[in-house]
Amino acid sequence: MFFPLPLHSFRFGRALVLCSCGIDGHAVCEGPIEQVVKTETREAEDLLKKLDILSPSLSRNSARGIFCSRSLNLRSISAIGYDMDYTLVHYNVKAWEGRAYDYCMENLKKMGFPVDGLTFDPDLVIRGLVIDKERGNLVKADRFGCIKRAMHGTKMLSTHAVREIYGREMVDLRLEGRWVFLSTFFSVSEAVAYMQMVDMLDDGVIPANLGSFDYKGLYKAMGMALVTAHLEGHLKNEIMSNPEQFVELDPELPFTLLDQKEAGKKLVLITNSDYHYTNKMMHYSFNRFLPSDMGWRDLFDIIVVSANKPEFFQMSHPMYELVTDEGLMRPCFKAQIGGLYSGGSAKMVERSLNIHGNDILYIGDHIYTDLNQSKVHLQWRTALICRELEEEYNALIHSRGYRQSLLELINQKEVVGDIFNQLQLTLQRRSKRLNAQTVAATDMDNENLSQSMQKLLVVMQILDGKIAPMLEADGALFNKRSSTHTHTHTYIAYVYSAIPLVG
């Protein structure tokens, strides 16, 4: 389609033609203007190839892309706040949480638990799952709280077992005495340790002299060991001594913050980490990429450490200004632009910036502490750093090749299954001496109907044999444990409805 436009509107007209005809230039256009459009389109395609962008649509949606659940106009945002851990500074989860797990195991061993031989398994859990402390289970619930899948200890439960255990029971995160939501990467080591200890309790290997444990008491003991590991400070000291083993550098990130400052945005760092740890991690992650006359602190208008989130968003605590690199502090009642502070509250930050509510965007990795509370109490706009989507997106891209073949097989089975259902319905009606016929039955007698149904069953079994391994391979791209927890799928043709694409 071509839109005739006056000559002075030619550039706008060309954009319209490109949008209407697509970047591939397959347009049904004639005339001198159309020829120019085709030439420009070919040149655009050549440029994309040189930039190694084979598909503009795919390039827009990358593994490091931005995915919006609602619209956000950045022109309306005056200030952007950031968390630090797993947001501005991203850790290698296997290394960081692996060491947290090791320290937890050391403390459990001191308490008398037989943990020798246990190792950290980062593929066992993922953020978004929920621990059921009463039953020693790890569950996956949908957005309504209905439990869809579950593990007991490190063992996957069958769909039937999940129904038997939970029935219509739903997860209620308000019942903190029972349910624990894994909302951060820091929850990974906690959940792995707990699920392994559930196995120990079930196997009866916990010494009797430690007392009688149920699943809830076991979680308390494990949590105490993990909290002790963090309070002792050995883990953070190890990370500060060897940041290269734990931190994944991102050269683009410092320049992104500089671009935001150039765009007139006020930048704020709000972290629960203390100043010494924050300074070490930010210096290691940012300074190497910044101009020689800049340090990481120059990126931010206000810096708040030891913020004590989520209370930072809920109420007011005393604020202290850090006046020396050694961490010497003095009381402060009002934050100033360029200041470095400990404690305080989000309201103090708003007053110092003279920016409030939805004019502020806060970015973090903690679903509750960073996003929920800043939204509920302050009406800040929020964005979640969700690194798991990178693997999800890459899995979708890698499976694209055979996913179309899988869909075709599934569609074939749906058609065959529908015909089978119609033939069976015809037999059922005839047995009730009803004259109504289904379309598929035509004039076949009962014997031909039965023979046809047997043939269709054979076809569906053949399709099942092709579909099942493809589903398993597809699921393995999204869940590394699917290969070790293989489920046998039995498809009953006459009640067949659909097959999930992800195992």
Automatic annotation (TrEMBL):
Family of this protein: Belongs to the 5'(3')-deoxyribonucleotidase family.
Molecular-function GO terms, alphabetical: 5'-nucleotidase activity; metal ion binding
Source organism: Vigna radiata var. radiata
Entry keywords, A to Z: Hydrolase, Magnesium, Metal-binding, Signal
Protein name as catalogued: 5'-nucleotidase domain-containing protein 4 isoform X5
Record-linked InterPro entries: HAD-like_sf, HAD-SF_hydro_IG_5-nucl, HAD_sf
Signal peptide limits: 1-15
